[in-house]
Specification:
This protein is an alpha+beta fold. The protein folds into 2 domains: about 70 residues; about 180 residues, Glutaredoxin (3-Layer(aba) Sandwich), CATH 3.40.30.10. About 40% of the residues lie in helices and about 15% in strands. The chain is built from 10 helices and 10 strands. The strands form 2 sheets. Strands 1, 2, 3, 4 and 5 form a 5-stranded antiparallel beta sheet that branches. A hairpin with a 2-residue loop joins strand 9 and strand 10. The longest helix is centred in the N-terminal third of the chain and has 21 residues. The radius of gyration is 27 Å and the shape is globular.
Length: about 325
Amino acid sequence: MSRMSFAFTLAAALWLGSSAAAQTPAVPKSPAADRKSALNKTVLEAWVRHLLVMDSRITVTISDPKPAPIAGLVEVTVHASLGDRAQDFLFYISSDGSQILQGTVWDVGLNPFKKELDKLHTAFQPSMGTPGATVVLVEFSDFECPYCKEEAKMLRDNLLAAYPKQVRLYYKEYPLESIHPWAKPAAIAGRCVFQQAANTFWDYHDWIYAHQGEITAGNFKDKAMEWAKTAKDIDASQLNACIDGKATEEAIDKNIAEGQALEVTGTPTLFVNGRRIPNVVDWPTLRNIVDYEIEYQKTARNAGEDCGCETTLQLPGAPPAKPAVPLQTR
């Protein structure tokens, strides 16, 4: 539309509006009519964009409100995405739409980490330590991540030496493909090793972190096969076929989806009986947390390992395995 025709149309609309106003008595608006409501998705989106500095490149989707855990509030999820990255933000809104609350709601009768515990599944994952342990650590890690290398060494050097019977550690692959080009192939290969010989997975784990600086996307496969030639209980030809066929990629993708559901945004991320520890943690700090949890669980008994969690693999022709179950949350 040209500037002139747009102006003419606008003028006509104003004239018609003023004419109608002259014929129709004005109806006073209530004060509430001018009040913005966070229950209006357009209003809430504008407010959230301003709060979190989300420009037009970011797509924002707002859920319909549903009852919140606290009386008098409703719960709304704001989903923000940019390319393959996404994050959810939870808000609580007063029933009249005038107030917004962001935070975590806990039930005092439950473990404060119950939401995380319910999402953590450890069946059929590489592990070390004592089955049925009081304290369960679940690590989301990336074989190409230098910080993961640092934490891996700390855990391998200290954890079982200090706690031979009281802890169990599970390893979950969480390759950050956008920045680490050989992380997912390494994760797939690690799972192939685990399928052949569960305990040998940890030899692979230690080897790949020790040689991290020598590995590239171009030479990873050759390096892995060199390791396999001398690895205990590993059939190199079987491993080669497993890697080429990406036979374990589905298991990796499940761990990635679990990490996303837990809003894991970086590696390493460690959960200790559900308590999230992002980034690298030093041994004295971790030991304090584990010691506290051991003592706390003597009376609370609301975390630790569910004895249904096993590392038994489902093999062709074998009876169906038990489904993955969450960590114990009595």
